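Repro case for the chain-ordering regression, as requested:
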Amino acid sequence: MCLGIPAKVIKIDDHLATVEIGGARKEIGLHLVDNISVGDYVIIHAGYAINKINEKEAEETLSLLRRLGDEVYR
Amino acid sequence: MRYIDEFRESEYANGIIDKIHSISKKNVKLMEVCGTHTVAIFKSGIRELLPKTIKLISGPGCPVCVTPMADIDKAIVIARQKDVIFTTFGDMMRVPGSLGTLQKQKADEGLDIRIVYSPLDALKIARDNKDKKVAFFSAGFETTTPTIAATVFQAYMDSLKNFFILPVNKTVPPAIKALLDTPELGLNGFICPGHVSVLIGSNVYKFIAEKYKRPAVISGFEPVDILLSIYMLIKQIEEKDAKVEIEYKRAVTPEGNKKAMGIMRDVFEPCDADWRGIGVIPESGLKLAKKYKGFDAVEHFGINIPAVEDKTSCNCGDILRGLKEPPECKLFGKACTPENPVGPCMVSTEGSCAAYYRFAGKDN
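-- result from build under test --
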């Protein structure tokens, strides 16, 4: 029940936004988040954005994964 | 899709699996609290990839599974009221109460019961049907509850008089505390729910590390996320450490989503709640705050349903607490299947029994 899907914001109209999820478009509510811009990725759940995805942190997790992989196969 | 595909890369997964094998020495039991994690773990076959030292246990983390029979009965009685359109998330349709299921009521009695994807859809139905009363089955943990709170707030601002909710919302931290107070479980660490934590943050879990001296890692939902979280937990356990860490950093912060939680705390306030198969957990439920009482369907329709005792020999209670595995229930795969479920853990696609049946095989 707690599924959340990353979606790209492509249009903002006050408290509503149009997002793109794997090619499909959907209208969602922005009532629970602040400072969202077009181009941001948000996690959507039950028709609302519940937060903005932190791109920098995503990169850091991936580089941690690469580092751990290197330790194994070095 | 971005932020999903990268976290499914087998190259990363293989590296982490090897790391886990190389550091894991002690026999440990880790619990994944969230049903969405349970499904991801079964679907990706993670249990089979781990060393024998690590046992994963599924917890109570599905709001569908823990909704007691009496609340299903309330939903049915509200749906039976004159001029009511009853709206619900699809998962709740097949959960049995003592009066049957919403799905059966819809088919047999022709009640106007509609599945919605978002509480906003229920609000729209209310706006479009001013001559009807629209009730929404408000189930969910902290991931979902703020979306319902935002909807109720909207209805309040619009002075909508024909929209109501049946609140059965529950909160996760008191349930984790109840699990930690069940010593026979012997849990060594927690994989904490990712999307609940987007909202509540990681700070609220400090009691797990500080009071109970157990490590906790908040995990994302892709296979690599879950493997990395398991690695982080094992590392802490082997180093005799106990702290709260975030693996799902791209979405979770220590403070959580303060705006969403602010809206939730304005609309709802804590109350004791009955968890199906588990019992009453203090302060683990949510009821509408005084200002929003006019939206309470139970009060509006004057519904009074006493607690119902579950008389089936279903073991969902023990399964939800991780005391039993689904195949240990004598109904599993026989009297209880996804097509014909007896207990809520088989109804919900995120229930332990349904996940076990679908992915591990009913004879496992």
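Ordering looks correct now. Chain B has a mean pLDDT of 94.
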